[in-house]
Write a structure and sequence with these properties.
heterodimer, A: about 250 residues, mainly alpha, B: about 240 residues, alpha/beta, six-stranded mixed β-sheet, about 40% helix, about 25% strand, globular
Chain lengths: ~250, ~240
């Protein structure tokens, strides 16, 4: 087991080295910074971006938008998911909304959001549109997939409703949520940045990406992509840490 | 002989299919009654009627309805994200205060030398051990009656022997009125003080056998009783 984990890590490192090697090779062959910048110029841009005043503010504002949007999505998904599991009416009411959200192109919703909403709110709304259906379905599944045998056992032993909700339903919701949490957090971040590219709020990763693109500063675009990748990785670690604190690993 | 619990003239049909036809059984207090019958004859239906899970069409269930009942199922029905202590506490919470609950759990775990497993999670236990915990949970629950629905069915032969011995040990230490449903003749002879044999559908009580083997422990008795049970099961 230990050996196989070591091997997986070795393969992962090898794959990263191959990608970086390929990047170096292609950028050398193409030799046009605008199309594919070199590793060197990307690192220079990265250092410039990080050292520029306001860098931390930009990151924090994007993260804040991301966090607010995600928390709203999560709370709404939990409330509506729980209500839907009890009320057939609310469940049926939610179905067309979810179908609408999953079948309409995201860009169409972003365009409408740009018309209707303030440019600070658009990124959060875009994140919400993508993440809410995933979280809602997960919460609902967590409730509906509760083991019927366990429920019957609880009923026969006359366990009260509060204990059943606290000890069976809530852990079941969290077990289901934890399996999609990392991907949902990352999808949310990506969509918030996409929303920022279009709505151009003042301090935002997306706005800066768009600016680099306008100036045809491709090394700058690559540098921002690296920053997003690092943030995404850190968020993944944070989610993992929270899961460990909540002792989620016991629930598997 | 104390007859505190009984079922009288129980009839149950599912649509046009009559499953139970006028079932009468007396359950002797603090003794184990095994209900034995061919697969699909309606044993579990009868058990569910006794437990109040499903409604009967007619007849009476006497003395059981207002009692707290413990259950052991085919599956262990342990909650995966709770350790053994919390799995037991889950059913005890409503019945006693916290300190009483703690001491009850400790007492039962000590009784069968399973204290070391107190903080184990079900996923870390074998199938046999999980079912032992399920039986322990049933005994720890403050009830006078224990209903078991084919509790050894999903176990392999070795585990079955161990878990049956575990049940016998607990039954000696903590007396309960037990009803065990099974289709296994040896199981019934090894555990039941009284064996009720049901017929094919629509089920009737075909024969009631007092299991003298439980008292004598004589293998000869067991063989004789086994023949009686087998012939009763074959005759229709």
């Amino acid at each position: 087991m230990k050996n196989s984990i070591l091997k997986d890590k070795e393969f992962s490192l090898l794959s990263k080295l191959i990608l970086i090697g390929l990047w170096a090779l292609l950028s050398g062959l193409i030799d046009k910074e605008v199309i594919l910048p070199s590793i060197g110029s990307t690192i220079v841009s990265l250092i410039d971006i990080i050292r520029a005043p306001g860098f931390l503010g930009i990151i924090l504002h994007s993260l804040l938008r991301s966090a607010i949007g995600f928390i709203i999505s999560l709370l709404l998904a939990m409330v509506l998911g729980i209500i839907s599991s009890y009320s057939r009416f609310v469940y049926q009411l939610m179905q067309p909304v979810l179908n609408f959200l999953s079948s309409i192109p995201t860009m169409a919703i972003i365009i409408l959001a740009l018309i209707w909403l303030d440019n600070e709110i658009v990124p959060m709304f875009v994140g919400f549109i993508m993440v809410f259906p995933i979280l809602y379905e997960t919460v609902l599944k967590g409730i509906l997939n509760v083991d019927k045998n366990i429920m019957e056992m609880a009923k026969l032993y006359k366990v009260d409703r509060f204990t059943i909700i606290r000890d069976i339903y809530i852990p079941s919701i969290f077990i289901n949520l934890s399996s999609v949490l990392t991907s949902a957090v990352n999808i949310n971040l990506k969509m918030v940045i996409a929303g920022e590219v279009l709505s151009q709020p003042k301090l935002a990763i997306g706005s800066n990406l768009q600016m680099e693109k306008m100036y045809l500063n491709t090394p700058g675009v690559f540098a921002w992509i690296i920053i997003i990748l690092v943030i995404s990785k850190i968020l993944g670690y944070i989610v993992e840490f929270i899961r460990k604190i909540a002792k989620e690993d016991r629930w598997k | 002989m104390i007859l505190k619990y009984s079922v009288k003239n129980i009839v149950k049909s599912y649509g046009p299919l009559k499953v139970l036809d006028n079932i009468n059984i007396d359950f002797i207090e603090n003794k184990t009654t095994c209900i034995l019958g061919p697969s699909g004859c309606g044993k579990t239906t009868l058990l569910n009627i006794i437990a109040g899970i499903i409604e009967k069409d007619s007849g009476e269930v006497l003395g059981i309805q207002n009692e707290d009942i413990s259950f052991v199922f085919q599956e262990d029905r342990l909650i995966e994200w709770k350790n053994i202590k919390d799995n037991m506490a889950f059913v005890l919470k409503n019945k006693m205060n916290k300190s009483e609950m703690e001491s009850t759990i400790d007492r039962f775990l000590n009784l069968v030398n399973l204290k070391e497993y107190k903080y184990y999670y079900p996923r870390n236990l074998s199938g046999g051990m999980r079912q032992r915990i399920s039986i322990l949970r049933a005994f720890a629950y403050p009830s006078k009656m224990l209903i078991m629905d084919e509790p050894f069915k999903s176990l392999d032969i070795n585990n079955k022997k161990i878990v049956m011995e575990f049940f016998r040990e607990l039954k000696t230490l903590e007396n309960r009125t037990c009803i065990i449903v099974t289709h296994d003749i040896d199981e019934a002879l090894d555990l039941g003080d009284r064996i009720i044999i049901l017929s094919e559908k629509p089920s009737r009580v075909k024969k009631v056998i007092e299991n003298t083997y439980m008292e004598t422990g004589n293998e000869e008795d067991k063989r004789g009783l086994k023949l009686q049970v087998e012939s009763a099961l074959m005759r229709d």
